[in-house]
Structure formats: structure tokens, C-alpha cells
Design a protein that fits this description.
Blueprint lengths: L1 H28 L4 H10 L10 H8 L3 H22 L4
Helix pairs in contact: 2-4, 3-4
């Protein structure tokens, strides 16, 4: 009985942490351009759970994987600057 209660509490805590993390990610992504946000979302599988390759991103958006990498790098640099200013890790 106690074991079941502790496991249920752990699941609740895990859901809360996941929700908080998702909210922080969404807040950070709001600082990006629409294209940067889409590239980061695809590359890290934020909606599907399955990360896309740079080549996949290029095909989806109609440019090469090198351009997808450049956009990704710009977006990540912007997210790092935002994290440094706010004192949070992204």
C-alpha cells in the first residue's frame, strides 16, 4: 500500500516536472523566428519525440542541409544568449 502511494506520488512529480520543463522550452522558443522555432522543434523532436536530421529539415523547408544547420546554429546561439541573460539553463 505504501509502495503504491509512493509510486503514484513519483508519477505525479514526474508529470509536474515534465510540464514545467515544457513551459520553459515554449517560453524560450518564443524568442526565435518562426523558421528557427520550426527547425529546433524538428531537430530535437519536441513534438514528435523523433529528432529529424538536417537533411530532413532541408527537404521540408526546400533548402539544403547546410542552410538548415546555419539556421539551427543561429537559433541555438540566440537561446544561449537568452539563457545567459535570464540566468536559466536552456
Amino acid at each position: 500500500m505504501l509502495k503504491d502511494m509512493l509510486e503514484a506520488e513519483d508519477r505525479t512529480d514526474s508529470v509536474t516536472v515534465s510540464r514545467q520543463l515544457r513551459e520553459k522550452i515554449e517560453k524560450a522558443l518564443a524568442h526565435l523566428t518562426a523558421r528557427e522555432k520550426q527547425i529546433i522543434t524538428l531537430r530535437y523532436g519536441l513534438t514528435t519525440g523523433e529528432p529529424a536530421t538536417l537533411e530532413d529539415c532541408g527537404i521540408i523547408f526546400g533548402f539544403g542541409k547546410e542552410r538548415a544547420r546555419q539556421i539551427q546554429d543561429t537559433a541555438l546561439a540566440r537561446l544561449r544568449r537568452i539563457a545567459a541573460k535570464s540566468g536559466e539553463f536552456v
